[in-house]
Amino acid sequence: MTNVMQSLVATGHTIRGVCYAKSSYLNQAIAALSAIPPERVGLNGEYDYYGLAKRIKTSFHGQVGRDAVKQITVKQRGSAVILSGQVDTLNLLDQLVDLALHTEGTTHVEVHDVQVNVLELAQPARVA
Question: Among residues 10, 72, 78, 100, which is most buried (max CB within 10 A)?
Fold first, then answer.
């Protein structure tokens, strides 16, 4: 194999995209390349660069309703989910973060510039 490389370089060719592997590993490597990473799976199982964000937004609509999340933006950076915008309550934000964290392909959730309209304070425990 080294002789092939030397002869190509000697004649001035550019080598691009060469991959060397043991024959036993080659089938595994090809199978891994054809699999879609979890954060890139779209709504219908197809490859979608923003698939994770779309699946999370759909989950939000189904779990808490479109009106509750109409002012929240869901973005992704790789397997990180980024929430921004406005929510009515802190409890709703907690619920959205939990839903996002439990979506396949999410490694972590970042909350940036989210305005919470009503801050609920924890209710003190009642003594019977």
Answer: 100
Provide the angle, in degrees to the nearest 10, between the axes of the packed helices 51-64 and 90-101. Answer: 130
Residues 6+ apart with CB under 8 A from 124: none
Beta-sheet pairing, 108-118 with 80-89: parallel
In terms of Cα–Cα distance, which of 83, 88, 59 is closest to 72? 83
- Residue 80 or 32, more confident: 80
Q: How far, in Å, CA of 112 to CA of 20, rounded? A: 43
Output the six-digit token pair for 84.
């921004």
How many CB atoms are located within 10 Å of the residue 107 CB? Answer: 12
119 φ/ψ angles, rounded to the nearest 5 degrees:
-95, 110
Residue type, 118: V
Q: What is the mean pLDDT of the chain?
A: 82
